[in-house]
């Protein structure tokens, strides 16, 4: 159950550690560091972890550290990959609160102040997020006033994520209480595509989850080198990794927690339904591609084969029978998608 709370100002001055992993993003580092430091009412320290970038990123990082005592640098002698880079940085933090922001993303001014204020007033909350807006060149401009705080019990938030089969966070907007972070064992190397999602799910098993409603909390940069567009591109890959993340949650993270285990079927059903829908949307008439999505759906939730959506997709892929949706159906779907986006933008789930 979500509860709305009136925002309240900080009464203390907590410390926040910002870890900025970097690989060949040295040209973005000055903006990322400036965003992390532009926070009133909290003491911020920044650790840049350069993963042996060949583009001179380490030199940029060292120059930023030389210019501001709040900035420190860790440089890998050899490339270790992004998961190890995340964990190396997080293992060295000392702040009361922690966030990990990729070098190509940017925290908005006072985003940490707003997130930390929520957790200071709600000690049961271990994870806070907000609205992360994508951008390419210029940083987004939007409201800065916090409309409300949303607070869920962790299990309720987890239930919503399972029933929708997906993550509600982009990543740079997430701030964790250090105690909550320490209860995890860091990012799981088995989940290079969905380590963030795994971290949020694990946290929600033991901690409540909060959200800062209203302002843009972080800016997520979209460019050709984004990991989700290169190494882990494709909806089917994303679906497979989300299923693996849920499997690990149910099998290993909380195997003896009954109300978590009860969500397994909901999560698998949601992933299967999305697979059928995505197959029809993104396969562009390629029958074998549609069948890949349908196979994934059936492996994930066998009963999906008895739905109308499955039958329609199967007929199109195997029997060559296609049926264009009526104009009213396309318009309805467009409106539904827009309303869903507006709701999630405002309320976070």
From TrEMBL:
Species for this entry: Nocardioides turkmenicus
One Gene Ontology MF term: transferase activity
Protein name according to UniProt: Glycosyltransferase
Glycosyltransferase 2-like domain boundaries: 17-182
InterPro entries linked to this entry: Glyco_trans_2-like, Glycosyltransf_2, Nucleotide-diphossugar_trans
Alphabetically ordered keywords of this record: Transferase
Gene3D superfamilies on file: Spore Coat Polysaccharide Biosynthesis Protein SpsA, Chain A
Source species, domain of life: Bacteria
